[in-house]
Transglutaminase domain protein (Novosphingobium nitrogenifigens DSM 19370), 1024 residues
Amino acid sequence: MPMLAKLSVHASRNKDLRTAQRIFTTPEVPLYDYVDGFGNICTRLTMPTGGITISCGFVIEDRFEPDEVDLGARQASLAELPDDVLHFLLASRYCETDKLTDIAWGLFGHLPMGWGLVQAIVDYVHGAIRFDYMAARPTKTAWEVFHERTGVCRDYAHLAIALCRCMNIPARYCTGYLGDMDLPAVIGDMDFSAWFEVWLGGRWFVFDARHNFPRSGRILMARGRDAADAALTTTFGAVTLSRFDIYTDQDCLTQD
Amino acid sequence: MPMLAKLSVHASRNKDLRTAQRIFTTPEVPLYDYVDGFGNICTRLTMPTGGITISCGFVIEDRFEPDEVDLGARQASLAELPDDVLHFLLASRYCETDKLTDIAWGLFGHLPMGWGLVQAIVDYVHGAIRFDYMAARPTKTAWEVFHERTGVCRDYAHLAIALCRCMNIPARYCTGYLGDMDLPAVIGDMDFSAWFEVWLGGRWFVFDARHNFPRSGRILMARGRDAADAALTTTFGAVTLSRFDIYTDQDCLTQD
Amino acid sequence: MPMLAKLSVHASRNKDLRTAQRIFTTPEVPLYDYVDGFGNICTRLTMPTGGITISCGFVIEDRFEPDEVDLGARQASLAELPDDVLHFLLASRYCETDKLTDIAWGLFGHLPMGWGLVQAIVDYVHGAIRFDYMAARPTKTAWEVFHERTGVCRDYAHLAIALCRCMNIPARYCTGYLGDMDLPAVIGDMDFSAWFEVWLGGRWFVFDARHNFPRSGRILMARGRDAADAALTTTFGAVTLSRFDIYTDQDCLTQD
Amino acid sequence: MPMLAKLSVHASRNKDLRTAQRIFTTPEVPLYDYVDGFGNICTRLTMPTGGITISCGFVIEDRFEPDEVDLGARQASLAELPDDVLHFLLASRYCETDKLTDIAWGLFGHLPMGWGLVQAIVDYVHGAIRFDYMAARPTKTAWEVFHERTGVCRDYAHLAIALCRCMNIPARYCTGYLGDMDLPAVIGDMDFSAWFEVWLGGRWFVFDARHNFPRSGRILMARGRDAADAALTTTFGAVTLSRFDIYTDQDCLTQD
């Protein structure tokens, strides 16, 4: 069964790798990478009957600093947006901006443009949605999250992205590693995390509606319009994920 | 109010133009083109208060032959698909493949792969959906079309695209000019039309679930994953379309 | 006779246009644009026998400020350079880095990396080459400029680009409008001008070895590895340029 | 010392790999891949002082059929050429079309367009140039090859490419593996080989001015305008290549 895996670190982090990053499988099968239009490194392979174990290990350097905050980052007018950013204003599979526009303007239309508007959207989503692993499903959209009020990190991101786009702020979905090293206590089993980015002040800034405070140590793996573009694995047929482990550890560098 | 218009002939038809193609507006406003990732020529402009008239005229050469049929075109296995075609298997705003997979396999899973499978999907959609201008709405998705059983050419295309993707056949949305010159009788007011393309036999072929027979004289304007990518105009705010005219006429060339 | 014309303003300046920019020809012939890998807007057309007049008029807004100077802009190490910038370190038709490396290191190898190194190269080229319209020829390369010591703005640029690349500084060729509005006296017949850009401090900066002081009002038309990529017109066969006029005029905006 | 290596199989052959293809180094250093505008997989790494051993092993499936010949492949007129092919008509570092145009038209201007014209160019180059490893140098251009009449496979390719471009036939440089399995006798030490491709009949065809007969088993590694784009390794500073081994072996598949 063919499989598309986005299990590598995103191409934008290539220069931070301190070892080569190689994907190995058991049993060994042919595989190759290509880079999609979002800079995601996509690995194509065919799962043998009997299943496959895929592993990828690497050492990466990270500044381990909290997500940047720039309260003064100016929101561009629509006419100012670069051509290749416009794409991130459109409706996408899990972000039905066409259905949420009136809601978004009702909730946020009185606020001034800019950083504060994004923060208000993130505060809203963070407060309105109750985290619940049991409420996750692969077809869940921003519209459904808005009405059901439950979800996981992916759902927080989708709703926040859709609302930002409705307010004419380009937004894109991100997924990757996010450890617990910046948290006071160790959390249990690790999973990949989802967050999002918005275009403010002429660049992309990270926001995280699930956690709603600046986190450290995000390692981006895939990015796109929403989770449809950034699925870590896409299989074309029925597959059972039988086990899933993420190990992360850290080492401190003394900067020269 | 900013506007994104895909009112030019698609870049793939540039060589068929027999005059320059220029977009003019009244009043005159600054505008410029860029080409998006689907080869669509996108015009950016800002509508003045008071509204704007946009016009575009050109002469284009077309072979005026019916859509090509190749019953033997082989359906590639998933592993064979080129990297840049995979994109057209994924879920998109108006084509919820994730929700329609079981339905698609229930309806078509017994059929052999290939041209006949696509034709069966097109026959099904053509037969199941009743054309109704009154049933159109901008948020309507393939899933909704499937359940409501009504729609316009865009809806026929979305449902057929979603079903093809569920069956692992890459499919993409197309919109453009389609005159009545190949029809026995003149139809009334013209509109742009929507159809779709599937990847079979190593290339893209046109299918049209609205008409379900090979038409002549399609002039492609925009293409994408679905209507979200290929909207002829996208405005960011409330706009009224007050009038809309398409004139087409034909002249026969004697081929040398 | 087919022709490729890069007579539009470069895509990076599209947002500064205050009128639409349209290319007209007499007689009228079919033409269309595409954008090449350097962001150049390329117009394809076929010249009729009897010749053609091509014209393009537009109003563009420019800050009319001198080329930016940042003495502290840091020169990236080779390992730090982004992937898509590496290309501008390689040898190209008119910039034979492979032949000039020893010369470059002999002249500049003792200097610290950074802005000062580029300025030293520009000072050298500006001083070593004598401007002479009569010494121009389409096949002249940086190596030949170095030995002949004469040239026009294109030749100054080629030699400076080649020397920068030899010193591991990415450099690219630029051509476009450069009026005389920032000069004390009106100069005579206008021509297009050539300058270049180097990658320092994580972005591109303009340098001009012909003039060697910060000029105002550059309007970029085409960019590339050297003049082979950025020729304003490329014809495939013998053509006579019978007349060539550039009119520029300025209007001052009061910034809001 | 930073290094750019194009030691992987070209992305167009990814689907033929029957094992994963991984580059290993001794000592182990960080490295990553990107894909350039020609589809070349480029590996970036930094050589440690003391040197490095780079190795890459893989199994690839190849039809092992002689280069395709299509005497009827039509030469497109310039106006018909696709936009992204035009690039391969321009002058480049080692193919000075601007200096060779008169020579090319003098030699081949009387011939009809098409396959036969390319074959005449290849015959000419094959006959005029004497193979001589001692006559190779990294700065040697088509113009120099034409006058010196000696060279290696790279030089044969450069002269043939330049002459094709002068005759308005797009041509691009290729390098990769070419074993001796299709030859009657084993040849000695193996090296990578260079050949070229021309655009005829709406696609690219392989020609080889060094061997001048259809060879089997080419495995493409890198492609570009000339050897400047397709160098298998580019180092930025002085490096000694101390050893260089290529092992190839074959296994026959029974096709299903």
